[in-house]
Amino acid sequence: MPNNPTAVFDRAMELLLAKDMAGFIALFAEDAVLEIPFAPPGQPRRVAGRAELHDYLINYPDLLDVREIRDRTVHETRDPEVIVVEFVASGLVVPTGQPYEVRYIAVLTIRDGQLVRYRDYWDPIAAQELLGGGLVQS
Questions:
Q1: 3 or 92, greater pLDDT
Q2: Are 64 and 35 contacting, i.e. CB atoms less than 8 angstroms apart?
Q3: Helix (H, G, I), strand (E, B), or coil: what is residue 111?
Q4: Sign of CA dihedral 43, 125, 130, 127
Q5: How far is CA 51 from CA 28, 34, 90, 112, 115, in A?
Q6: pTM, two decimal places
Q7: Are 93 and 130 in contact, with CB atoms under 8 Å apart?
Q8: Could you tell me if 45 and 39 are in contact, meaning their C-beta atoms sit under 8 angstroms apart?
């Protein structure tokens, strides 16, 4: 398992593109936290622990078929365990077949090769328009 924060992020994106959600979820520590600060009402803003992450993320490929991650820029911070990553994810919205493209900023804390905190910043209005009001839920 990669230990460098950038390598862990890159591995996470490889697994996401491969639709290997079990592998993606396994990158998270048992007590990891996923924060979604801009989640719209009715959607979780915080998912804690690998079991909850599993329930939240396992069916992600049934909603979004992510086919490309591009325009990736990694910003290192003074804390060697924390990186900020800007990227664009694109693909298809599975239920509608419509194209999907959203810009993200993620703040990741990686300790001992595992994600311990993932703050996911994306445009909730664009996501709701793409997904017809239904965001990622299992």
A1: 92
A2: no
A3: strand
A4: negative
A5: 10, 12, 27, 20, 14
A6: 0.87
A7: yes
A8: yes
Q: Which fold has domain 5-131?
A: Nuclear Transport Factor 2; Chain: A, (3.10.450)
Percent of the chain with pLDDT over 90: 77
For 43-95, how does the pLDDT look when each residue is reduced to its tens digit (9 = 90+)? 899 999 999 999 999 999 998 999 999 999 999 999 999 999 999 999 999 99
Reported residue count of the chain is 138
Q: What are the domain boundaries of the chain?
A: 5-131
Nearest to 33 by CA among 110, 135, 122: 110
Q: SS3 of 50, please? A: helix
